[in-house]
Amino acid sequence: MSNCAIVGINWGDEGKGRMVDLLTERFDYVIRYQGGGNAGHTVVNEYGKFALHLLPSGIFRKGVMNILGNGVALDLENLYSEMQTVIGQGVSLTPDNLRISDRASLLLPWHRLLDGLEEARLADKKYGSTKQGIAPFYSDKFQKKTILAGELFYPERLKEHLQDLLTWKNLTLTGVYGAEAVRYEDLLAWVEDYAEKFKPFICDTGKMLKNAVKEGKSILFEAQLGSLRDLDYGIYPYTTSSNAIAAYAPVGSGLPSAKVDQVVGVVKAYSTCVGEGPFVCEWFGEEADKLREAGNEYGAKTGRPRRVGPIDIVATRYGVECQGATDIALTKMDVLSYMEQIPVCSHYELNGEITDDFPFPTALNDCKPVIEYLPGWQCDISGVRRWEDLPENARKYVEYVEKQIGCRIRYVSVGPERDAYIERF
Ligand code: GDP
User: Which ligand 1 atom is at minimum distance from the Cα of 269?
Assistant: First the structure.
């Protein structure tokens, strides 16, 4: 069976969770391969409405094994409370449907602490961190100063490792930020508490996946955020601290030899962006408020109002290339129904020249959007399930975007519910 990655093409919040929840029906394994609990994947299905932060969006499907791969920031504290919420809504979460890689690094309490301290130090120059400790976590991982989940099975060695890390980390906490030192007893108690809760879920998931491949099982890789927030290819430094692109899926999932046969890139029918950084096609004022309200564009994790604007063809085309997308899911088409004409940012103007190339991040600050308009359809399309039943202008919009970004739009989503989509064959 073939493998598939579901990834974001833009700034995140494109509706990946909704697409994973829909497409998991066709897969045996769903793996989160990067990022942490700062995600907010919204899923609406027969169990209710969920904002998943770290749990893979395949947990609602019977018979699907969900894995947190070695590439994630394993925030056990948030994961535990997220699991309690989901279980409370009637979803079963046991080692039969959820496993954690023994090679995933633990996000420790001091990572969240440091995130807050650094954002406070930056004051008006802040990057808009969600203060979940993600940047300090990944920095430490690359310095080889984290604890792997598998170490929880070696308590005596773990104690020594924790003590070493604590001595090192307290130098930064007290010396650089003037904060209080973390006490060893507190750290150990925290680790032991979560070790007890999570040991049944932790295993060599790499081995598990190798066997799955031998048995011909299919794997779905679930990304967090989107191309433009990728650490290496995004709008640095306003990126996240991990690789959100599909090429990283084999590395972060625990199956480095995996072939990703299909990459479904999720694109929103208009643009949104949470947090700081250049956002060329941004709208302000009344028209922005109207679009934000129509799309209910407030962060799933933080409740922050999202910045909004028309679809950005230049950024989207670049995002499609970064992801190597084979298919596109265009979401939230229904939100545009109120518009008389649909705006699109078709090109950028940079230093008086029109360009279709997504520039070096610093130059984005000097880019201006070139806006064109397509005719709107001005009727409710949320009940449409067949391509031929979409109003002609809605079909024309999809075809226009498809042509401009150079990738087939296979799914058109017209509502948050699982079945509110059109598949084009
Ligand atoms: P993710 O992080 O990429 O999974 O995206 P989010 O969950 O942050 O944002 C997507 C939001 O749009 C969620 O509230 C979804 O329920 C909602 N959504 C997804 N697809 C559609 C759609 O086609 N129409 C509408 N109206 N809402 C959608």
Answer: 23
